[in-house]
Amino acid sequence: MKVTIVGAGNVGATCADVISYRGIASEVVLLDIKEGFAEGKAMDIMQCSTTTGFNTVVSGSTNDYSKTAKSDVVVITSGIPRKPGMTREELIGINAGIVKSVAVNILEHSPDAIIVVVSNPMDTMTYLTLKATGLPKNRVIGMGGALDSSRFKYFLSQALQKPSNDVQGMVIGGHGDTTMIPLTRLASYNGSPVANFLSQEEMDKVAASTMVGGATLTGLLGTSAWYAPGASVAFLVDSILNNQKRMIPCSVMLDGEYGQSDICIGVPCIIGRNGVEQIVDVKLNDAEKALFAKSAEAVRNMNADLKSVL
Ligand SMILES: NC(=O)c1ccc[n+]([C@@H]2O[C@H](COP(=O)([O-])OP(=O)(O)OC[C@H]3O[C@@H](n4cnc5c(N)ncnc54)[C@H](O)[C@@H]3O)[C@@H](O)[C@H]2O)c1
Q: Under a CB-based contact definition with an 8 Å cutoff, are residues 7 and 229 in contact?
């Protein structure tokens, strides 16, 4: 199985690293426009193979898409990351041009690939990729919910003072500080609602920390985070390539589901070898439905900025 990752920066290279040491794919190609950069990252990762013991072959390419031919999955991380004080929304103009040209180049060499969009603003970039390529909606998947959910579970585990692997929870809606929806009501500690262990105030604090999770790290690091984003992409790629059919919140095109159409936004999906295999209805209550509608409105407003690119 072959995976191409476009953009060998922080998130792309971390994703390649996790995919290789976990043996998720047999081949990974990193591609970047910066001369020699992807080749260097690939060589660095390959020099871990004997110490961490993996067999995945990782190679790099400076903008030569012929090396990406016949990829099963292509991850798009190319673009500029958010700087302190910059909103994801402000990234749109620059990243839209990059994502569109990358998607077109990729499909020339891998016409059957499933595309995973990571570049921000991710929901809008996923929508752009679908519209610009005309691909069926099961083959374009935006990654954001997997990361936001892992941050949610981290903050829940901190509040519960329990191991994060004993905590379940999901974040849906837009992948933005004000648009994401941590589903606190449905979160559990080994199947028992977290409300049995945390006060409303504590749960609200967890939700608030999750929502600014990315911005908090951007403030600390001076650029956006990469370990959890890279690992979250690898987790999603694993479910696709190895047909795991995991339920992962992903940004996908809706056609009436959750009361929305003609929009890519985070909803729980079954992810397998065909990409998005099912959208799962988790039965939101009225308050959650209202939050989802508000989130969709914000994402739709951002999509309106694509007019000049589409
Ligand atoms: N969806 C998410 O959950 C999530 C999480 C973290 C970061 N991100 C986004 O992912 C993107 C990448 O973040 P990063 O921290 O890895 O940034 P980065 O700057 O470290 O890496 C981006 C790479 O893209 C390359 N690039 C730019 N234009 C290109 C093109 N046309 N073709 C090929 N490569 C090109 C750059 O040279 C750079 O190496 C950003 O848009 C960031 O906001 C999304």
A: no
The CATH number of the domain covering residues in 145-306: 3.90.110.10
Ligand 1 centre distance from Cα of residue 163 (Å): 31
**Hey, whose CA ends up nearest to atom 35 of ligand 1?**
78
Annotated catalytic, 109?
no
The 8-class DSSP code of residue 70 comes to T
Burial of 110 from C-beta contacts in 10 A (0-12 / 13-18 / 19+): buried
Q: pTM above 0.85? A: yes
Which pair of tokens denotes residue 308? 């000049």
The pLDDT tens digits of the residues spanning 110-155 come to 999 999 999 999 999 999 999 999 999 999 999 999 999 999 999 9
Return the best residue to mutate from 11, 15, 152, 250 for the ligand 1 pocket (most ligand atoms within 8 A of CB): 11
27 DSSP β-pair partners = 2, 57
Helices 227-241 and 145-160: crossing angle, nearest 10°?
120
Is residue 211 within 8 A of residue 175, CB to CB? The reply is: no
Give alpha helix (H) positions in the chain. Answer: 10-21, 37-46, 92-109, 122-133, 145-160, 200-211, 213-221, 227-241, 286-303
Domain with CATH 3.90.110.10 in the chain: 145-306
Hey, which CATH number is domain 2-143, 3.30.70.2330, 3.40.640.10, 3.30.43.10, 3.40.50.720?
3.40.50.720
List residues near ligand 1 (CB under 6 A): 6-12, 31-34, 37, 77-82, 91, 95, 98, 102, 118-120, 122, 143-144, 147, 175, 224, 226, 229
Predicted confidence (pLDDT) per residue in 258-270, tens digit:
999 999 999 999 9
Q: Which residues of the chain have pLDDT under 50?
A: none
- CA-142 nearest atom, ligand 1: 1
